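Q: Hi! First time doing this. I have a protein sequence and I read that you can turn it into a structure. Is that right? Here it is:
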Amino acid sequence: MIEPAKNDSEERMLAIIEARRRGDTLAAIGSRFGISRERIRQILKGANGPTRQDARRAQLAARQSKADSVQREIRIALEQYGPATAEDISLLIDVQVDEVAACWPKDLNHLRLHPPRNRTQAWSDHDIISAIQDAALYEFPLTAKAYAELQAIGQINGPSLPRISQRFRFWATACEAAGVEHGAPAREDYQSEWTDHDLLAYVSRYLWDGNYPNSVHGYTQWRRSEHPEAPSFSTIRNRLGTWTIVKTRALEMDGLPNGRS
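A: Yes, that's right. Below is the predicted 3D structure, encoded as structure tokens:
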């Protein structure tokens, strides 16, 4: 058995073993601890640590777990906004477009929209307002769900709901800009129930918890298990925007929520 060098403390050895057990590469571990890949290999061998096959299995398991998490977030986004492109979902859940496309649930392929090839549509405020006005000719008062259905079947030419949300934040605000009476969607009372500070404070508490993955799905799990009184992520997203924006604002906060007033 190869004995660890004297400067290989027990604490560092345990950290190296744990990193390899998670699937970290020898190069990554060596870079972290400032020693060579060969020395890492010797330490692991001497300590009867995880093998290359063990690390490979861990890597595959982590990759599958991440894919499952992204797929769950896609489902949540589609449930909230209806049909959308992979790019739209990417904006909503803060995941790269190619990863969204790879993880898109097969049973929800009918909800995936495909933009025209070789053409990037840049929707101006005027375009959005015109699309909403066109949709109001078919449905009045106009709900977000009705707009999404008209847009999905090509009855109107306009951006998806995530794009409208990105620009105007609220469906009601977009309809008001278009001079269209909006239908009240389910859970619209979220605007009066929570202040922005309430929403951000709960996200801050979640981010500092450390026991859940840093993702939309992780927040949903945390809320269900730890704080059922907390707002849903749909409420947070409707009010504050994408997960990246929400995380950035939440981490800038100093305090934690004491509950709703």
